[in-house]
Design brief:
Rossmann fold; Four Helix Bundle (Hemerythrin (Met), subunit A); 11 helices; about 350 residues; binds guanosine-5'-triphosphate; binds magnesium ion; 5 strands; alpha/beta; 5-stranded mixed sheet
Length: about 350
């Protein structure tokens, strides 16, 4: 899912500005107009009405089409939306945009027929002013919704792009070396730095193992506290909903700024199967590594484990794809058979 490409949502004054400017430009660029003053005024006004309507409708439709439809989203994204946004307000805002879209069409229709019936040039000007007023007041009514949609867009931009693959999550305190591990495992170039909260969104990398791809997510460092900000909520959700395997990264050098005890407390909070990786081993004596009292794995062991664990999922996926393929083939064959039977029937009739 890609939430990064939703275009910004503008407010009503930008809508109005652009639409009426485009209308003026269109009128100026047209070279031929009827000689008769009233006819000319009508043609100009029709042109303006159409350009304004088309421009605003296009912009409103773009909002409706570029935000992902919430019902068709995978469960993870439905949950993340409900966690980080006011779902009711989001729905209401789409409803308001839809409403404005319908109203603009109606108002355009009304004014088009009014302009058709006018008898003098002066009235055209009056109608134009009225039309502007109607459109402006319509759009102003949805300003609060447009502004909420822009807020939602900015939040959605921070959502991770998660694919339906076997997924490994790297988790642990800030600054322990999660992004460094992601880069080593997958060859990505996620930012790493010697301070906490370098990663403020969820980084993804991929390991290709034969014909199989495994997704690795670097989940922002957490402090294990109970109150969560938006990114921490996303991190929790990724762990609950998406992770097939969690790698808990310990920095037992404590260079990260958090004690081993604190890191252990967080480790205990994780419900799922977790495997442990010790980072910054190059800074440690072998004795210290050996005496660490939790079972831990080397990078090679982790890769082997991922290969093994993801295989079952991969085979399941291949099976599903094969089933889907034979279903499509059967459907296609049935369609061809039906078409052939129809053809035979019609050739017999004639
Ligand atoms: N010597 C050494 N330094 C490491 C190792 N892994 C990470 N570091 C350093 O530790 C610091 C933190 O690493 P990051 O990978 O940014 O840590 P992070 O867990 O992603 O941090 P946040 O994104 O802030 O949560 C950086 O200065 C890294 O260079 C390692 O294996 N050895
Ligand atoms: Mg990081």
């Amino acid at each position: 899912m890609n939430f990064q490409k939703i275009p910004p949502v503008e407010l009503s004054d930008v809508f109005l500005d652009i639409a009426f400017r485009r209308a003026r430009e269109k009128v100026a660029s047209k070279s031929k107009y009827p000689k008769d003053a009233l006819q000319k005024a009508r043609v100009i006004e029709h042109l303006r009405l159409d350009v304004v309507k088309d421009n605003i409708i296009f912009r409103l439709e773009r909002i409706l089409n570029t935000f992902p439809g919430t019902i068709t989203l995978p469960p993870f994204y439905q949950k993340i939306i409900k966690l980080t946004l006011d779902y009711k307000r989001l729905k209401e805002s789409f409803g308001a945009v839809n409403w404005a879209h319908e109203r603009i069409r109606k108002v355009h229709g009304q004014y088009t027929s009014k302009v058709r019936k006018i008898k003098d040039v002066k009235t055209v000007k009056v109608l134009h002013k009225q039309f502007y007023g109607r459109v402006a007041s319509l759009l102003k009514q949805i300003d609060k919704n447009l502004s909420y949609l822009e807020e939602a867009r900015r939040t959605m931009k921070t959502y991770p792009d998660i694919k339906e693959l076997y997924t490994v999550c790297l988790y642990g305190f800030p600054n322990v070396g999660k992004s460094t591990l992601l880069n080593t495992m997958t060859g990505t170039k996620a930012k790493t730095a010697a301070y906490s909260f370098t990663t403020v969104t969820i980084n993804a990398g991929y390991i290709h193992m034969g014909d199989k791809t495994v997704q690795v997510l670097d989940v922002p460092g957490t402090l294990g506290r109970d109150k969560h900000n938006d990114i921490e909520k996303q991190a929790e959700l990724v762990l609950e909903e998406v992770a097939d395997l969690i790698i808990y990264v310990y920095d037992i050098t404590e260079n990260c700024g958090y004690s081993i005890e604190k890191q252990k407390e967080l480790r205990k909070k994780l419900g799922k199967d977790v495997i442990v990786y010790l980072s910054k081993k190059d800074l440690l004596e072998q004795d210290t590594i050996d005496s660490f009292d939790e079972k831990h794995h080397t990078l090679d062991q982790i890769k082997e484990l991922i290969d093994k664990e993801s295989e079952e999922r991969h085979q399941g996926l291949l099976k599903r794809l094969a089933l889907e393929k034979s279903r499509l083939e059967a459907e296609e064959k049935a369609e061809l058979d039906a078409a052939a039977a129809k053809e035979l029937e019609s050739s017999q009739e004639s």
